[in-house]
Specification:
Strand content: 5-15%
CATH topology of the largest domain: Rossmann fold
Number of strands: 11
Low-confidence stretches: 61-70, 357-361
Number of helices: 19
CATH architecture of the largest domain: 3-Layer(aba) Sandwich
Helix content: 25-40%
Strand order of the largest sheet: 1-2-3-5-4-6-7-10-11
Length: 474
């Protein structure tokens, strides 16, 4: 359990400006310790943007007798998915306008290591020393340290506020939901309310258990894909055979396209429109081969963008460690080990499955989903430089605790969660189990939305979540 005393983040710089869409945005740079509670381990900078509605009242605001705090709007801190992704600009995030319309200010804080918050790349990581030192550094970039950053920023932003106004709300999407539950575990008194979308983390479940469950959903999405586009069964065999015969194929931004890397673009199957996105790529690749005999630069560039791990390396190196919920737990390339045992993903250990002769197409090649494999660190140029570090992290067992069950079981903070029955990334059964451990949670469960609904269908998700909040108890 986190027992560190958190000090307010040091405010380094702030600047306020108006942007289109009637938004007033303040940019903040903060400084916090790499290790909270220790001042001799170095620091990291955090970048955040606080968006509020731009208002110019006809009549100036009057003194409310409360130091002006009566006019302060509550803060909703949005926690992005990942790990390893920074925030979009407030005006480009659909959630901004929904929340501002509800009367909130919205804080978009980039997690440490991503966006503008001391970003981690292969180049910046080298500054930390040898691979062992780099691995030790990256152990500070999971949810346990992120929530201490959040708490430090809250204390800084609300310095001087009356005690009754020093809590804030949080809204976690995907991995942001994982962070939210860690925050709820260790700092419940700092929270007014918690909203989650596709982010009910599998509390105290090992990576192996998670991937055994999510692999079922990946299989179902593959089946849905081939049911919609049966002609792609043969096309996939042809494409992987072409890639095998012509490997390695250089990609525009570096790295190589191999049959195995191609099979990981199935990550798009978990999103709204994912079946069509994958089919469109198959058509594009097959057209190139049929017409010119090779894959053109635009096609290869499109393939790169379908899973841009080079731009988000923390996503790759920390994706499995986010499930290491306590000391003694390791991931050890969990997805690879679990999926090796399934014949539908036999391409993971049988190269001929991705390039041998196929006269019949009775058994489809199944794409993987949101999984990271060792070969990712051979085919992406940024990840190639981090391969040794990733190996160390995969075997590491000295992780901090992520959830405090007694706090969750006696929770008094209102929690509202959207859980997607067909979610390919966060298993519904494990999410339901987690919900049962959080006292007082209200859940919206639906089989009509996928994991990225907050982006693809915000008009369906956000109003329903707030309906859970606003409904009175019967």
């Amino acid at each position: 359990m986190i027992t560190t005393h958190i000090k307010p983040a040091k405010l380094l710089k702030q600047q306020t400006h108006q942007i289109p869409g009637q938004l007033l945005v303040t940019d903040y740079f903060f400084e916090v310790p790499l290790t909270h509670g220790a001042t001799d381990k170095g620091e990291v900078q955090l970048f955040g943007r606080l968006a509020t509605k731009f208002e110019k009242p006809t009549v100036p605001l009057q003194d409310d007798g409360n130091g002006g705090f009566g006019n302060v709007k509550p803060i909703m801190c949005y926690l992005e998915g990942g790990p390893g992704f920074g925030n979009r600009d407030p005006q480009d995030n659909s959630i901004t306008h929904y929340l501002i319309a509800r009367g909130y200010q919205v804080l978009f804080l980039d997690y440490r290591g991503v966006g503008n918050s001391s970003p981690v790349t292969a180049e910046t990581l080298v500054l930390r020393g040898d691979v062992k030192a780099q691995a030790e550094y990256l152990k500070h970039f999971r949810a346990d340290n992120i929530v201490m950053d959040l708490e430090a920023v809250r204390l800084s932003l609300m310095d001087g506020y009356p005690e009754t106004k020093r809590t804030w709300s949080i809204f976690g999407q995907s991995f942001g939901g994982f962070v939210s539950l860690t925050y709820l575990s260790f700092f419940p008194r700092s929270l007014t309310e918690v909203f989650l979308t596709g982010g009910l983390a599998p509390i105290n479940r090992r990576a192996d258990e998670v991937y055994k469950k999510t692999m079922v959903k990946v299989t179902q999405r593959n089946e849905a894909y081939y049911a919609k586009y049966p002609e792609d069964r043969e096309a996939i065999f042809h494409l992987t055979s072409f890639l095998r015969k012509n490997a390695p194929i250089a990609l525009p931004a570096g790295g190589t396209l191999t049959p195995e890397r191609f099979m990981t673009v199935g990550i798009v199957l978990g999103a709204h429109g994912g079946l069509d996105t994958l089919h469109g790529m198959v058509v594009k690749m097959q057209a190139d081969i049929d017409q010119v005999g090779f894959l053109t630069r635009p096609t290869l560039a499109s393939l790169e963008q379908m899973n841009s791990l080079d731009n988000n390396p923390l996503y790759a190196v920390l994706h499995e460690p986010i499930y290491n919920y306590a000391p003694g737990v390791s991931s050890n390339w969990s997805a690879h080990r679990v999926m090796l045992n399934d014949v539908r993903f036999s391409w993971l250990h049988n190269p001929e499955q991705l390039g041998g002769p196929h006269k019949k197409y009775e058994q489809e090649l199944y794409f993987s989903g949101e999984m990271i494999f060792p070969f990712h660190f051979d085919t992406y140029p940024e990840l190639q430089k981090m391969k040794e570090v990733a190996e160390i992290l995969a075997k590491a067992t000295d992780w901090g605790e992520l959830y405090h069950l007694p706090t969750l079981e006696h929770n008094t903070v209102p929690v509202y969660a959207a859980s997607y029955i067909n979610d390919m990334y966060v298993d519904y059964d494990l999410a339901k189990e987690s919900a049962s451990r959080i006292r007082g949670i209200k859940t919206l469960e639906t089989n009509s939305l996928h994991h990225n609904a907050i982006r693809a269908r915000p008009d369906q998700v956000i109003p329903q979540l707030f309906a859970l909040r606003d409904d009175s108890i019967d």
